[in-house]
Amino acid sequence: MEKFSKFEKQWTPHIIGELNGQYVKLCKLKDEFVWHSHEHEDELFMVFQGTLYMDFRDGRTEAIQAGEIIIVPKGVEHRPWTKNGEIVFNLLFEPKETKHTGDVETDLTVKKLDWI
């Protein structure tokens, strides 16, 4: 949890490790992110604190609690979000070449990730 104290900005992943062509990233999530997908990469979310909600285009929403994971398969459009202003502490595990918001460009898109 100490690494989460090193940054404040939400929806901005920070790299904490690398293995087998994958980055391990931490981020803080609050409110709603953008609909996006990753054409060639699966994406793993692990919640450390709070509850993360994941919307899918088929109309379903999954709730991921602290200590749980969800894997979003490549090509599946999704939108992560949190409820009532809660800040969720999250770990991401994904290939190094994964673009933050896939092919979608918004004000929330981060192109250069920092190591902590």
Summary of the model, kept short:
This protein is mostly beta strands and 116 residues long. 0% of the residues lie in helices and 45% in strands.
Description:
Strand 1 (14-19) and strand 2 (22-30) form a beta hairpin. The model has no long low-confidence stretch (mean pLDDT 93). With 116 residues, this protein is mainly beta. It contains no helices and 9 strands. 0% of the residues lie in helices and 45% in strands. The strands form 2 sheets. It has a 6-stranded mixed sheet with strand order 6-3-8-2-1-9, with no helix packed on it. A 3-stranded antiparallel sheet has the order 5-4-7, with no helix packed on it.
> H/E element string?
EEEEEEEEE
- CA-atom Rg in angstroms: 13 Å
What topology, given as strand order, has the largest sheet? 6-3-8-2-1-9
Structural class by secondary-structure content: mainly beta
Total count of strands: 9
Poorly predicted segments: none
- DSSP helix count? 0
Overall pLDDT score: 93
Beta-strand fraction estimate: 35-45%
Overall shape: it is globular
Major sheet summary line: 6 strands, mixed
Q: Between the first and last Cα atoms, what is the distance in angstroms?
A: 13 Å
Instruction: Tell me roughly what share of residues is in helical segments.
Output: under 10%
